[in-house]
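Thread: quick sanity check before group meeting

JM: Hey all, I'm pulling together slides for Thursday and realized we never actually wrote out the predicted structure for the chain we discussed last week. Dropping the sequence here so it's in one place. If anyone has concerns about the input, flag it before I start.
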Amino acid sequence: MGVFIFEEKEADRVKVEKIVHRFGFKDKSLIVFQNCNFINEELFSSGFSSLNLYLLALCFNNDQLAGIEIAKKIRLKDPEGLIVIMSSYPQCILEIINARISVFTLIDKNQQFDDILSEVLQDYQERLMVKNPFFMLPGKKEIVAKKDILMIETYGAHQLKLTTLQQTFLFRSTIKNSMNQLTEFWRVHESFLLNPHFVSVIDFSKNEITLSSGHRAPIGRKYKPFL
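JM (edit): ok, ran it. Output follows.
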């Protein structure tokens, strides 16, 4: 499972990455390509075991529309993947139709791009929750529904505390390892991982996030730009 960005324009690529980071997708769950005419075959070498999101920018290079062939290859290799086309050119819609490529949606870069991409990422997070609904507690024979998790925080050396609305669980692991199962969660601090569905208030003046349950978590300086 992961988010894949295909964007040649550096300014647009940085903008898309910043929005994607805000939804907690980074490190192993995010792969960025800077060439819309080339894709590493290794991407497809191990197959797909979960739902992937492809953010593919279409642009014209020497009167040729870059990205169409990659879209075709992605659809062939990953029939269940969500392909999102990003472009500033209205004619790209016709090109996609003519190529008979099934896509999740098309986003006009000139029309409320940030808001629409954020809606797409929120929808993707919800789909991941449905497709992979449980978190397995490392070292224990217990699972917790992801939708019930409020937060995970460090609790002593090599130990974490997982909090739900009903109870808490202690287990041995790290925040980084937990993110492998909870890629849709937000890491807001070195010691805190939050379920974005419970985020109620983000207070940058206090560097603090309040959840709808009343729980609070600090915002780390390193993670502040991604919120």
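AS: nice. The longest strand covers residues 52-57. Helices lie at 10-22, 68-77, 91-99, 113-131, 175-178.
JM: adding both to the slides.
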